[in-house]
Amino acid sequence: MNVATQFDVDDHAPAVAPPAFMHAGTDPFHELTDEFADLKEVLNDIECLSGAETARELDKMRKGIDRFTQEITFIGQIKAGKTMLVNAMAGRPGLLPSDVNPWTSVVTSLHMDTQRSTDGGADFRFFEADEWDRLMSGAGRLGEVSERIGAEDEYARLVEQTAEMREMSQARLGRSFERLLGQKHSFEHFDTDVIRRYVCLGDAFAADDARNRQGQYADITKSADIYLPMDVLPYSLVLRDTPGLNDTFLMREQVTIRAIRDSRICVVVLSAQQALNTVDLGLIRLISSIKSRQVVLFVNRIDELSEPARELPRIKQSLLRTLADSNGPENPRIIFGSALWATAALHGSTDTLPGPSLLTLRNYLDDAAHTEISPQDCWAASGIPELYACIGRRIQSGPGQKAISSLRKRATNMVLGLQASTQVAGLTAKSDHVLKMTDDRVASRIAQVEATAQTALDAALTKTFDGFGSRIDRAHINFLNRAVEALLQHLDTYGEHEAWNYSPDGLRLLARSAYSAMSVSLKRDVTDVFTKVSADLTAAYGDIFDVEAGHFKIEPPELPDLPPPVTIAKTIILDISTPWWKTWSRKRRGYSALSSDFRALIEGETDSILTDLKIVQLAEIREIMRGTLREFLAEQNSILADILTRSNVGVDDLNTLYGLNQQAERSDMLNILLNELDAPVDAPADEELQDGNE
User: Fold this and answer.
1) Is the pTM of this model over 0.85?
2) Hey, CA dihedral for 570, 572, 574, 576, is it positive or negative?
3) How far apart are CA 574 and CA 504, in angstroms?
4) Which residues contact residue 535 at a Cβ distance below 8 angstroms, ignoring those fewer than 6 apart?
């Protein structure tokens, strides 16, 4: 069930125009928009020469450009300052509250929409009943782990805590508790009080307190979507604030994994005082499965350092060393800043800063104590302009260029189709037999090409996926064998009462390597399928029309990106440094029982991760590839429909509509458009070199 309930808030305040200094660092966004604008002009020119079917496809392409949106996910520990940073980047200090409930796992997304002039409302989605039951039964993920290893005391404590939380939730919501699960509350307007009701820790409140019900729905809220106007950027962004990862129930880990898989760029927010301490190893696991160019490290709260100029190089080297030792991303982009300074800049004065923070700011800017620091300087020191520039360049050189390349290929196919239709129309004036097939046979011929392509794609995917599954299974067995062997060696050397640790990173490395190899194989095989269907469609034109197509050749579609294998970062028993080993081992009698039970324990713990990778992730990839093929074939059908329309044009119609001179002019214009689409595009400079991130 997914019932949406509409609300309104009377005291909604209109959005305030952002200060001019917020444009700092946004040049890459505007450069990409200029490229999109140039491409839209070409699409407009194509439409002037196209038929109705092609015009509809062109309109979809233009709307796709207008809807171009990128999602940026922010992850980090609780109290690293993610929420304050997200608020500052949106130009809305205090919009999202930072005192979130340590229990809730709410992913909050700020949709910064360039098409909006006023705040556009908010949607709050609640857990489905089965999701809520999975979270609450057995004390969540950590309770599941505790039960598996036989830690009865820990398990009982967690069960007691979750039962208490469930009772509090039901008491807070009363008889509507069960009915609310699976629903969505939507607001045409919102204010901070509304947001706090859904994402913040709340105490008990009086039944007649209709206004201040902070945390009323927080326990059952799964996600929050806030819609805002954005005048600073030329295209829309979604800033996704995820819950902190260092929680006892491991609930946030799964929702954060899902958020990262849906995003193109991940900003890891660290605190300068404890950047990448041992607790942050979970963060390293998460980002190790993402391409380095999709990861940005933002070291926040440098305002708490006494001498940032001296301390920042040391922090950076420590970060790089920790990441290298932990198989983290290579040569990551590291940006230092302060969300607190950004907030002060947005308020228009540094008077709101605590004394030590202001002193650190002066130190950082190497500013004399008597000089007044402007909001622009404060904003620059905050690191947000640098962060925006980095994000903008990565979008421009990554998904932006990929989108442009895909659109240019699609537009090229349309122009080639229009050239073919022009040739058909010209020949129709001399012959009544341009079309060699009846309409039924044409439809059958194209359906044959489509069916062959779909079958070939499914066969290629199945072959690649089967190979990947076999490789993952072998890696799993090898890991289990090595782990049990290491356990037996430990027992022979130290006995069963000595603490023992075994890292699961080897399994993650093997899974990551297998996924990378699968991706290479998949791209190669799918490229072959897409190239073959393009050649088959080109050949079909020769079978359908009695026309020499010349250089006519349909371009295959652009390969889509694959989602990163973030699920392999999920915490497993071996990641947890607790005294569980002694408790668990004391319940086994003899080394044989220890080794066999240990193998079963780790196999059960790791199997769910690998199953998700083999089943859920591969199913998502299959649908992505099928969708790309469906869209390509739909466009080709539109082009063919326009050609068929022109092939039925009579001689008198040709003289009236096109005329010989107009046909020649049309052909020249199509050649010009084709040359424009074939012209090389200057790719953005390499971002790491441009940023000077030595």
Assistant:
1) no
2) positive
3) 6
4) 554
8 A C-beta contact, residue 657 and residue 649: yes
The string of pLDDT tens digits covering residues 149-162 is 555 555 565 566 66
Reading the block at residue 178, the tokens are 């069960």
Could you give the 3-state DSSP secondary structure of residue 577? coil
- pLDDT tens digits for 636-693? 888 888 777 766 655 454 444 444 456 667 777 888 888 888 766 555 554 443 444 4
For the purposes of burial, counting CB atoms within 10 Å of the CB of 46, is it exposed (0-12), middle (13-18) or buried (19 or more)?
A: buried
Assign residue 108 a region (left: φ > 0; alpha: ψ between -120 and 50; beta: otherwise).
beta
Burial class for 552, CB neighbours closer than 10 Å (0-12, 13-18, 19+): middle
73, amino acid identity: T
Q: What's the sign of the alpha-carbon dihedral 59, 60, 62, 66?
A: positive
The answer to whether 580 touches 148, Cβ cutoff 8 Å, is no
DSSP state of 416: H
> What is the three-class DSSP state of 6?
strand
Residue 486, CA distances (Å) to 382, 494, 598, 694 in order = 48, 12, 11, 40
**What are 350's two structure tokens?**
């540094």
Nearest to 92 by CA among 187, 17, 29: 17
The pLDDT-based confidence of 309 (bands split at 50, 70, 90) is: confident
CB 382 within 8 A of CB 345: yes
Would you tell me how many other CB atoms lie within 10 Å of the CB of residue 352? 15
Which residues have a Cβ under 8 Å from the Cβ of 557 and sit 6 or more positions away? 406, 409, 410, 530, 628, 629, 631, 632
Pairing verdict, β 107-113 and 221-229: parallel
478 vs 179: CA distance, rounded Å: 48
* 3-state SS class at 655: helix
* Long-range contacts of the stretch 628-631 (C-beta < 8 A, 24+): 628/557, 628/558, 628/559, 628/560, 629/453, 629/454, 629/457, 629/529, 629/530, 629/533, 629/557, 631/557
pLDDT at 431: 53
Mean pLDDT value of segment 557-568: 88
Which residues does residue 239 pair with via DSSP β-bridges, in sequence order? 72, 110
Q: Rounded to an integer, what distance in angstroms lies between the CA atom of residue 110 and that of residue 238?
A: 5
Helix/strand number for the chain, H first, E second: 24, 10
* Residue 675 CB-density burial (10 A; 0-12 exposed, 13-18 middle, 19+ buried): exposed
Residue 661, both tokens? 């001179």
What DSSP designation does 100 have?
B
Whole-number pLDDT of residue 581: 56
CB 418 within 8 A of CB 638: no
pLDDT score of 504? 83
Tokens of 492: 């022979």
Please give the full DSSP string across 133-173, using - where no structure is assigned: HHHHGGGHHHHHHHHHTT-HHHHHHHHHHHHHHHHHHHHHH
The beta strands (E) that lie in 258-318 are given as 265-271, 295-300
